[in-house]
Amino acid sequence: MGPTAYLHFMQAAYPHLKASGTGRVINFGSMAGIIGLAGMGPYNMAKEAVRALTRTAAREWAGDKITVNNVLPVAETWGPEANVPPATNPLGRYGSPEEDIAPVVLFLASKDAQFMTGYSLTPDGGSIIDSAR
């Protein structure tokens, strides 16, 4: 899904989120844009646009008590027949959508994350450990 689709979906949801008084938007990006995967220019660009949209909406919608965050997961979403190289992150494995990624999304959707907005959380096994996030 491209950044324009995210924009239109968020615009359509905005009145309902505002009326709720505690709206949450959780977008999905990719670490590809952050690290600049070779040969993936259009994909990298699209995912960075989603991060920019997330930060902008977080600033614009905060006054309406809507938080807007982004998740950049690295998870095993392919079947056993796929020829995927071994994980190179510090934890040495790809994440589980159910056990590693879903709890992060649930946290962002919860009251516990009410003071977090504009963030890109990276449940990635430590793939992009750095201080510039």
Q: Per the principal axes of the C-alpha atoms, what is the gross shape?
A: globular
What portion of the residues fall into strands of 2 or more residues?
Answer: 5-15%
Q: Strand count, sense and closure of the main sheet? A: 3 strands, parallel
Instruction: Give the strand order of the largest sheet, numbering strands 1, 2, ... along the chain.
Output: 1-2-3
Mean pLDDT: 93
The percent range for helix content is: 40-55%
Count of DSSP H/I helices: 4
Through-space gap between termini = 23 Å
Query: What class, by secondary structure content?
Result: mainly alpha
H-E order: HEHHEHE
Q: How many β-strand stretches?
A: 3
Give Rg in angstroms: 16 Å
Low-pLDDT runs of 5+ residues are none
Task: Tell me briefly what this model is.
With 133 residues, the chain is mostly helical. Helix content is 43%, strand content 9%.
How does this structure look, described?
This protein is mostly helical and 133 residues long. 43% of the residues lie in helices and 9% in strands. It is built from 4 helices and 3 strands, in the order αβααβαβ. The protein has helices at residues 3-20, 31-35, 41-61, 97-109; strands spanning 24-28, 67-71, 120-121. Strands 1-2-3 form a 3-stranded parallel beta sheet, with helices on both faces. Strand 2 (67-71), helix 4 (97-109) and strand 3 form a beta-alpha-beta unit. Helix 1 packs parallel to helix 3. The longest helix is centred in the middle third of the chain and has 21 residues, at 41-61. The mean pLDDT is 93.
